[in-house]
């Protein structure tokens, strides 16, 4: 076989596969076109997984008849004035999305740029153009996605999962572009609608519900970084949820660079560094952060589907993000936020093993209602009562799941919980697993889920909120660990909190039960439960000779 050049049409068809990988990509491309057209309102309707039908309607500037006919052809764009990629300030620039989508579906585009009548362009086997009534703006309808790509269609996940991706993407735009009103409907049901007021908190209220909107603060910062020998303005705006409403997965840290939600790990890490010790080690915040930079500081053209960007002076931008997040949180009123992590940075070492250590531990007192103090041989043990209780609950729960299953308790009246669209979709796709874990719940419309029963291991009724942790664990993957992660979170909820006072008897019982655990020395999240200070260490501090024997 010899090397030969592919014909143009084949090249284009291969390229189409790169752009349109799944229904969520179609939604993203259409939403970005609407935003580029200056829309103030974007309405998205999805049927099933999105392969049946996706419709995106906007009130943007629309297109003339000629433009509309051209737009569905390949490599046609209005967005690259002089072919200068350095200066693009639009989300689109490659001019291939509409053509690529039309290649793998039946597409209709109806548009009007403000004239008396609009135009409808249909692209099936052949293109058709006819006049159509429509107000100013554009509607794109995509039917039968991948009808001519059976392998791609079969490789898609279950409809609920595909829709979860769509709703997660739309939520990102809605949260990060609060000046635009977004509406998402699935199978005729409203998933969420944002008001387009420009307020990050209003958008968060619509997407996440009241708790997140209330337990959050906004961030506004203008600063600059050096790029080459020029100063570049960095504008940061967004919403930071308090540490009281953390998540176990990091996919709620959403960042946009120049208006496009992107995945830039260095920026996400900078956000989390900005939270510092306010975040427990295994928890992640809910954040929407819009970063604006001069176009020359950003290369949007480094990824086939533009999911990430390359930043010039990325480290300096990350530092600016970290500082702004940290500032915003330090001035915010965090008093309401419970569960703030404790930072332990003493000369204390985690105990590493030896079940006998707790066997002869004698409870001698407590400190700040956080720690139980015990004498054990030559060691002074400091036990984190919350972490210890979590470990005990976790092991009991694991035993329950392996034997009779997690018992559940009916909630009367049922509780409702506001969840993100992705979480709502996960309630449907993981209903079996949730039932096995003791939840009885179903989506209730408007981003809420109705919970009729919750896990109640050993008569302890879990908070309805523990459903969030369960969903996060389930969504994190099909890995074998998900159940352990989930049990760890469930164990956390009924556990003692920092500040709960324990009677001496309860303290002694807790220590004894901890000692009986399979792995007493770390909580299910991997943090230590027990720290030891040996007497030699104290003696050294007091300038004494250690006691021997
Ligand atoms: P790109 O966005 O990269 O330019 P597309 O294939 O997505 O490429 O769109 C081609 C062109 O069609 C755009 O440059 C724009 O002029 C026009 N267009 C597409 N969608 C819309 C819309 N919703 N409103 C107005 N114009 C649109
Ligand atoms: Mg586009």
Q: Which descriptors would you attach to this protein?
A:
binds adenosine-5'-diphosphate, alpha+beta, 549 residues, Heat Shock Protein 90, formyl-coa transferase, domain 3, 3 domains, eight-stranded mixed beta sheet
By CATH's scheme, which homologous superfamily of the largest domain applies?
A: Histidine kinase-like ATPase, C-terminal domain
Q: Which small compounds were modeled alongside the protein? A: adenosine-5'-diphosphate, magnesium ion
Task: Write down how many β-strands occur, each being a DSSP E stretch of 2 or more residues.
Answer: 23
Q: Which residue ranges are poorly predicted, with pLDDT under 50 across at least 5 consecutive positions? A: 335-357
**Cα shape:** elongated
CATH topology of the largest domain: Heat Shock Protein 90
> Which CATH architecture of the largest domain is right?
2-Layer Sandwich
Please give the structural blueprint:
Elements lengths: L7 H12 L3 H14 L4 E7 L5 E6 L6 H7 L25 H7 L2 E7 L5 E6 L3 E6 L4 E7 L6 H5 L4 H18 L4 E6 L2 E5 L6 H9 L1 H5 L1 E12 L2 E12 L11 E5 L2 E3 L2 H11 L11 E6 L5 E2 L10 E2 L2 H18 L17 E2 L5 H4 L2 E6 L3 E6 L2 E6 H18 L5 E11 L2 H9 L1 H6 L3 E6 L2 E8 L10 H10 L6 H11 L11 H12 L14 E5 H7 L8
Parallel strand pairs: 1-7, 11-13
Antiparallel strand pairs: 1-2, 2-6, 3-4, 3-6, 4-5, 7-8, 9-10, 10-13, 11-12, 14-15, 16-23, 17-18, 18-19, 19-23, 20-22, 21-22
This protein binds adenosine-5'-diphosphate and magnesium ion (MG).
The site of adenosine-5'-diphosphate (ADP) has 23 residues, from helix 2 and helix 4.
